[in-house]
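Researcher: I'm preparing a figure for a lab meeting and need a structural model of a single chain. I don't have an experimental structure, so a prediction will have to do for now. The sequence is pasted below. Please return the structure as tokens so I can convert it later.
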Amino acid sequence: MRFFKALLFVILLPLLLVGNDDRPPVPYNFLDKKEVKNFISMMVKKHHFKREYMLSVLKRAKKDRDTLARYTGRYKVGTTNGPWERYKAHVLDPVSLDKAKKFKQKYYKTLLRASKEYKVDMDYMVGFIGVESKFGEYSGDYNILNALATLAFHKNRMKKFFKTELENLFLMAREQGYDITKLQGSFAGAMGMVQQVPSVFRKYGMDYNRDGKKDPWDLEDAIGIIAKFMHQNGWKKGGLVAVPTEFKGKRYTELKTSHRRTLPLATILKHGIKPLSHFNEPKAYLLKNANLTHDDIWLGAKNFRVLTRYNNSTSYGMAIYLIAQSVK
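Model: Understood. Here is the structure written out token by token.
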């Protein structure tokens, strides 16, 4: 569980955010830093990398100022995740929902196989891939080495995490035969069709299309990856995910809303929430999505929490849920 607590703040939604801004990566001498030298020695001793290789790679790494700016200073909403209005505009718009239906049709056989093998619902796999890469259209245009080296060796609020991810990047590149200097993804080092940081790819990556290689940029492999993730995190096939509600007024402030802790259903009902369909669990996550003019309040079931274990966001889970509903 500690693994996911760290991961939740990092798996990102690059299609909701702009790419590199007007501050492109710049040359930087990482090898002058003592902690970089210590990192190299650790990789040589612990993982048996050649020192010459480590030196040559990190000599080529650049400082990504845009990436660093997102993780320094005061956290700003929208810098590492998308607000609800952005989700609606970019992944829940009519064009995107039409693409979701076409994706399901095109990859139906693979989705069906994964659904049966891992006992998960295929429509939610479609939702994951829609939110993470808009069905393969965008998987990030940041250089992963630059991003992770910058975040691993410059002060920021998640420096320790990113140093571990840089370690995993070297291991992943060696295991898969990748040129570590050419990999591209999000500003936090997440890559592929379902945006995985290196440690997550090493845990869940698979050759689901059986072409002899694990490829995070392959859509069929991504289907297997998400199915495996859902299964291992407790997804119940056919189970309840979320139920819409109504309440008096336009903004709801009676109870604290959260996708991370449940409330007794009886308590929720006593505080002005009326489910619009049957909710069959004794406890629920009280979920809020703030629109420009009003709040949407939902009751989340245990399956909803599985969605947010991939990205620590109510809006993220709700976007996947609504895409899934659109393709049923």
